[in-house]
Each structure stands twice: as C-alpha cells, then as structure tokens.
Amino acid sequence: MRGTHGSNPATRILTTLVALLALQIGSLVAPAYACGCGAMIPDSSERIGVDREESAVRWDGRTETIVMRFNVHGNARRAAWIMPVPSRAEVTLGDPALFDALESLTAPEERDRHYFWPREGDWPFDSSYGDGAAGAAPPGAGSGVGVVGRERLGPFDVARLTATDPAALGDWLHANGFELPERLPGALRPYVDRRWEYVAVRLAPQEKGASLQGKLSPLRISFASPELVYPMRLSRLARTPQTLGLYVLADHRMEPRSPIGGDRPEVTFAGRIDGDESAAVTGLTGGVPVHLTALEQEFPHPDRIDDDHRLRAVSDTPYREVVYNDRLLTIGDDVPAWLVTVGGGALLAAAATLLAVRASRRRSQPAPGVRSTA
Q1: CA 94, CA 4: separation in Å to the nearest integer?
Q2: Which pLDDT does position 2 carry in this prediction?
Q3: What is the 3-class SS of 313-329, one letter each residue?
Q4: DSSP assignment string, 307-370
Q5: Can you list the residues of the chain whose pLDDT is less than 70?
Q6: Helix (H/G/I), strand (E/B), else coil: 87
Q7: Using omega within 30 degrees of 0 as the cis cutoff, is the peptide bond preceding 124 cis?
Q8: Contact 106/247 with Cβ under 8 angstroms?
C-alpha cells in the first residue's frame, strides 16, 4: 500500500529540472564587468554576459589596430564599455568577415590515423562501422574628462575620452545612465598614471526595446604605439573564468612576454601569409605579407591578472595544429581489415584441420587387398 505523504516521483523530477534550468539561466546572465580588454557595464537592474573574447591585432611597428568582436547574452537592452588605449584612437566599424577568414587561415590540419581492432561504435559493437570520430545619451562633461570625439557607428555610440582621475569616468557613466562598478576606479588607476586615454562606447540595439544578443558588429580601434600591447588589466574585474582568442598580424611571429596571471598562452598557428587572402584580411594588412600568430589563453582566476599583454617577436618558426581523425582500417571502402584477417586465419585453420583429418583417415585405412584380422 502506498503512503499518503511525500512527493510524487514525477513531481520531484520536475522540480529538480526546473531548479537546474533556473541555475543555468542564472549563470548565463551573471554580471560581466569585464570582457578581456575592456569593462562592460549594464544597467543596474539588468544583466549582460560576454562569451569568449576574440580580437585581431595588426601592428606595423608604429601603429596598432585592434578589431574586436563582442558575443553577448543576457537581458540588457543597453550597456557601456570602456577600453584604455595608450594614445589618441580612431574608431570605425570592423569587417564582420574578418574572423571567418582568419579562422579559415589558421584551421588545424586534419590527418587520418587508422586503428586495426574495432572500438566502441564499430561493428560488431554497433550497427555501423568504418566511420572515424574526430578526436549614449550625450557624454557628461564631468571634472577631469575631456571628450575628444564622438561618432555613431551602427549599434554603437562611441565617445573618445581623456581622464585625469578614475572617478571622472564615473561621472561620464553616471551622465549616461550607468552605475560605476565599485572596483573599476582602482583598476583604471594604472592607466590614469600612465596618461592613457579611453574609448567609451554605449551599446544599444538599433531596434527599440530589443536586448543585446549574439555577435555584435566588430569595432576597429587604431592608435599609435611603439610596442604591441593588448590591454587586459580590466579583465581582473570579471567574476567568471575568461577565455582569450587572439590573432596577431605583424612582421614576425609574436608571443606574449608573460602569462600575466593566466594559464600559459598556447600558440595554435604561426606562419607567413600573403596578406591579401580575402578583402577582409587585406583591409587589415594593407595587402602586404605578414606573419600570423593565433593564440589561445585561459584565465581561470581573472582577479590574478596583473598587467596588459605585451607581445614580442620570436623565431619565425611555422606551426599548424594537427587534428587526427581515428578511423577503422578497412579494405576497400567497407570491409574491416580485422574481419578479413581473422576470417582468413579461421579459414586457413579450418582447411589445415580438414587436411589433417583426411590424412589421419588415410593412414588408418588398410592397404588394398589386405583383410583386417580384428
């Protein structure tokens, strides 16, 4: 007899699923006050999340150009983003096709690697075999802030600012309807001390009432710099692990001088390209040959980030990642080699056994004309 107390199993399962779904949604809209080289700040009542940051950097020894693409989610209908730059910056919209072109240029080389004995997923362990599996409102004129330029670029309202005091940026944010995260002034202090300037961007969808979702149009930011520097210090404000994907185009292979508090940067591609592989790449390189270096880096503990990335030239050794596709060894297109080998061996063994039996029988039979006395 069933008890009358306690919850129904179906109800318990449904409650668990709802709780897990709520937890997942909560993680997607968690505040993201930093996205690699800038601070992303939503309205206080809204949330915005920034996925993996992806940037392409071109440096010719004098001028640096960063093309950055945002991939955002959450319920924020607008947000502010701040990026420090070492000198006066020019800001335009980037080419959306650039990252697809770079991804194609740096794609891993695929090689087949065959194995003999069947594995899980191969016949007879599965019904099929032979398939391999591959491993803003107007900017405020608060004390200490100078507005040196302002443009409307697609979904972006871009203001280029100078600031002599981190709190002055708070005035600008407040004038544009945003609250200054309490840790941002301290993170900005090193840039203020070095007299860097800022690109401040107000992001808002062109469709009224829509939220910021998916991949936004890339921004292209150019400034003079005697060294290749990629601002990262503001990422220490992030509350979740960060991932950086960086394409570097320069005269030589370039790598970070240090991990700046993250895991060791991993080079996934290094090699010389013509620079005119596509219109998007030509727009960044000017059509001249360059060395392209693709870097991946994880920051499990963003609060440990203690500097910006400063990159240096290293040996121009080419490198391309290799991805192996493990495939069952076959004869022809469909017949597993192991089946032919094992089957052939079995046939040979059966034939040898048959011959041995026949030979034994012949030896046991009496010679013609001789009568057995048994």
Answers
A1: 65
A2: 43
A3: ECCCCCEECEEEEEEEC
A4: S-EEEEE-----EE-EEEEEEE-EETTTEEHHHHHHHHHHHHHHHHHHHHHHHHHHHHSPPTT-
A5: 1-39, 42-52, 71-77, 115-118, 120-144, 163-168, 177-180, 204-207, 209-216, 329, 332-333, 337-340, 342-352, 354-359, 361-374
A6: coil
A7: yes
A8: yes
Cβ atoms of residues 212 and 72 within 8 Å: yes
Per-residue pLDDT reduced to its tens digit, 182-218: 778 788 888 888 888 888 877 766 667 665 655 667 8
User: What pLDDT is recorded for position 150?
Assistant: 77
pLDDT digits (tens, 9 = 90+) for 241-259: 888 999 999 999 999 999 9
Give me the residue label for tokens 């080079």.
267
Q: What is the DSSP string of 7-65?
A: --HHHHHHHHHHHHHHHHHHHHT------SSSEEEE-TT--EEE--EEEEEEE-SSEEE
Buried b (16+ CB within 10 A) or exposed e, 265-282: bebbbbbebebebeebbb
Question: What secondary structure letter does DSSP report for 107?
Answer: P
Q: What is the C-alpha R_g of the chain?
A: 32
Q: Cβ of 29: how many Cβ atoms within 10 Å?
A: 16
**Two structure tokens written together for 119:** 């594995």
> Using CB atoms within 10 A of its CB, is residue 362 exposed (0-12), middle (13-18) or buried (19+)?
exposed
